[in-house]
Amino acid sequence: MTTLRYSTEIPVEDEVDVQVVGGGPAGVAAAVAAARTGARTRLVERYGFLGGNLTAGLVGPCMTSYSLDGREQLIRGVFDEFVRRMEAAGGALHPSRTRAGDAYSGFIEYGHDKVTPFEPEAAKAVALQLCREAGVLLRLHSFVADTVVRDGRVTGVVAASKSGLALLPARVTVDCSADGDVAAAAGVPTEFGRDTDGLAQPMTVFFRVAGVDDEAVERYVRSHPEDRRPYESVVARARSEGRFPAPRRGVGMYRTLRPGVWRINTSRVLHRDGTDVADLTAAEIEGREQVLRLVEFFRADLPGFERCELLDTATTVGVRESRRIVGEYRLTLADLQSARHFDDVVALCGYPVDIHDPTGSGGGVDESAGTANVYEIPYRSLVPRGVDGLLVAGRCVSTSHEALAAIRVMPPAFAMGEAAGTAAALAVRDGVPPRALSVPELQRALLEAGAYLGVPVG
Ligand SMILES: Cc1cc2nc3c(=O)[nH]c(=O)nc-3n(C[C@H](O)[C@H](O)[C@H](O)COP(=O)(O)OP(=O)(O)OC[C@H]3O[C@@H](n4cnc5c(N)ncnc54)[C@H](O)[C@@H]3O)c2cc1C
């Protein structure tokens, strides 16, 4: 590839205390928490709406926010408020009202107790409401393309929009881009994929179908207990005849709050890198072709789906895994298995390891990985090595491939975002780098705001 050295003058916008890049589950929680903690907060998002995978990815339901045994709600705070707000508007069911193995859980038992079904439009509305009520300054339609680092500290990001390029300065930045875009551009070391071969989990274009006969689906699935996943034997037959359009063994399907409407998590695109534009383009093409062929297959082969129609597809292909920053602590599977206690715990989770096979048709929630009923995420996993003025939350925090496969779902992303946003605001208030923040003070602030960390802290 040839290169060009390019220099230009760009406008410098107002400096804020805390700048959050990416308005998904982590970013919304981070921005709301930072603003409520008293920081002048800006949220920069590439789309014209908030929610990330909750909305643009059409991903749902939210996987469990409870302990693995479904007994205790671990992720509360902004997440719980978000869900209750959607529920009050008729756009969600609180997780306490769903159970493992039901249609909202995709008929899956293990790790699927207490999921949260919700409507994507409710998520769009509530994300915006919470941010606006907290006084977050919104900069939508803005893609962050670069990071400015001065004397080892992130001082702002460069965003591209219809108004051109601009520098958006901030005292502390929280990278909630899911891909670690800000951190990578700042020179923070990152990891990608499995230790063995660097391959990441596959991508999926989520879609919804309408016109499904809900009772017929329920009847079929309940009368085929031999299928580990819904319609597994139908899919196996079609695969042996070369008729199934995606490298999957069953149909990932989740009933929604709307009669006859199901979310489908079944397309699969292998061997693509979510930080490479050529790969993303190829993944969109392949994933969207699979969707059309899957709908045809559903109509022809799946009892209950004979009259279904494509309702919509996600705005973007869903990327399960890409860069993970190298932070002050790398969370591992052993930590999740042993329920390792961290003095700097900032979130509790119970969702198990869920690895979609990077090379083939297998994978999913994995009982044999043996994660604990409740495990902890430490603050240090949100603190990047080597650069100040920056925190990271959501899918790109410092973990192994296996540990990420458990904490990557949306409720933990909210919890990590809330912790990072609160920490960023406290660091600005106290005039210290985020890595030097008093962790007991952060934990107290999180508890006061409604988060749950198990035992009372400090
Ligand atoms: C196919 C698939 C299925 C999944 N299934 C489930 C499920 O059923 N339940 C569940 O709970 N979780 C599921 N997950 C996991 C979950 O959706 C994500 O891991 C989670 O959304 C991560 O939250 P986040 O806030 O870190 O990132 P995201 O939700 O990806 O949000 C990132 C936000 O940052 C914005 N952004 C990114 N880069 C930039 C940039 N450079 N400049 C400006 N804005 C930027 C994006 O537009 C987006 O709004 C699934 C994920 C995928 C991909």
Account of the 3D structure:
It is a single chain. The protein is of the alpha+beta class. Helices cover 28% and strands 19% of the residues. It has helices at 25-36, 77-88, 120-134, 181-185, 214-222, 232-240, 277-301, 333-337, 401-407, 410-430, 439-448; strands at residues 16-21, 41-44, 137-139, 143-150, 153-161, 164-175, 190-192, 203-204, 207-210, 253-255, 262-264, 309-313, 318-319, 323-325, 345-349, 354-356, 363-365, 375-378, 390-392. It is globular. The termini are far apart. The model has no long low-confidence stretch (mean pLDDT 97). Flavin-adenine dinucleotide is lined by residues 21-27, 44-47, 52-53, 56-57, 59-60, 62-63, 143-144, 176-179, 181, 204, 206, 265, 318-320, 394-395, 408-410, 413.
Structural class determined from secondary elements: alpha+beta
Report the top-level CATH class of the largest domain: Alpha Beta
Number of strands: 19
Determine the number of helices (DSSP H or I, runs of at least 4 residues): 11
The parts where pLDDT drops under 50 for at least 5 residues are none
Q: Could you tell me which ligands this complex binds, including any ions or cofactors?
A: flavin-adenine dinucleotide
Per the principal axes of the C-alpha atoms, what is the gross shape? Answer: globular
Number of domains: 2
CATH homolog superfamily of the largest domain:
FAD/NAD(P)-binding domain
Query: How can the largest sheet be summarized?
Result: 7 strands, mixed
- Helix share, percent: 25-40%
Q: What is the CATH topology of the largest domain?
A: FAD/NAD(P)-binding domain
SSE run? EHEHHEEEEHEEEHHEEHEEEHEEEEEHHH
Radius of gyration over all CA atoms, rounded: 21 Å
The rounded distance between the terminal residues' Cα atoms is 55 Å
CATH-derived architecture of the largest domain? 3-Layer(bba) Sandwich
Mean pLDDT: 97
Protein name: FAD-dependent oxidoreductase
Keywords: 4Fe-4S, Iron, Iron-sulfur, Metal-binding, Oxidoreductase
Pfam families: FAD_oxidored (PF12831)
GO molecular function: 4 iron, 4 sulfur cluster binding; metal ion binding; oxidoreductase activity
